[in-house]
Specification:
Layout: H1 2-18, E1 24-28, E2 39-43, H2 52-61, E3 66-73, E4 77-84, E5 87-94, E6 99-107, H3 113-122, E7 127-135, E8 140-147, E9 151-158, E10 161-169
Parallel strand pairs: 2-3
Antiparallel strand pairs: 1-2, 3-4, 4-5, 5-6, 6-7, 7-8, 8-9, 9-10
């Protein structure tokens, strides 16, 4: 009788706990080199399904100031989203755990001087808005959103060369086919 009663109480708890569909989160308290604090690691799969090679490469490349790691495993490989030095970053690894490239997002005011001056000379009257810094560990290039009263441009800045990837009219857009505009 006691076993039956215990089974009726614990069975719903056991099956409910196993059917949760939330991301897996792990908390560790070991200090990271140079930071003195622990952190959180979250992922869309159990931690043991993350490539140890990708994990080691990530922690070698981004050894300090990292917090809020979120690992995402897909058929293509691994994506790690994290904050480092108060800036949002993403790092990409292939299925075997080899580092591919990383992205760093920041305000245009924080863009390095040389590429920022290049953009300001070529596009006077435009304000640097958002910068995405892309690196593969050897080369760096920038995707820069610049804004003026007339247009919004997305630029690619690499080795002293600027290419326009996107040029949108700022404020003059009244309708786009298939899109309902707010307030209309």
């Amino acid at each position: 009788m006691y076993c039956l009663l215990a089974g009726m109480v614990w069975a719903p708890c056991y099956t409910t706990a196993q059917s949760g569909i939330s991301p897996v989160a792990y908390r560790f308290n070991e200090p990271r080199s140079g930071t003195g604090t622990g952190g959180d690691i979250s992922c869309n799969v159990p931690l043991n399904e993350i490539s140890i090679h990708a994990y080691r490469h990530f922690h070698r490349l981004f050894s300090s100031g990292v917090s809020g790691e979120y690992w995402f495993k897909s058929e293509e490989g691994y994506l790690v989203s994290f904050v480092r030095d108060a800036q949002r970053n993403q790092a990409y690894f292939d299925r075997r755990g080899a580092y591919l490239y990383s992205l760093k997002y920041y305000a245009g005011t924080k863009m390095p001087t040389v590429p920022a001056e290049l953009v300001k000379r070529k596009y006077p009257g435009y304000q640097l808005d958002v910068v995405t810094e892309v690196t593969d560990g050897e080369k760096v290039f920038y995707l820069v959103k610049v804004i003026s009263t007339e247009s919004v441009k997305t630029l690619s800045v690499n080795d002293g060369k600027i290419d326009v990837l996107e040029d949108l009219v700022n404020g003059g857009l009244t309708s786009v086919p298939g899109v309902v505009m707010a307030g209309r």
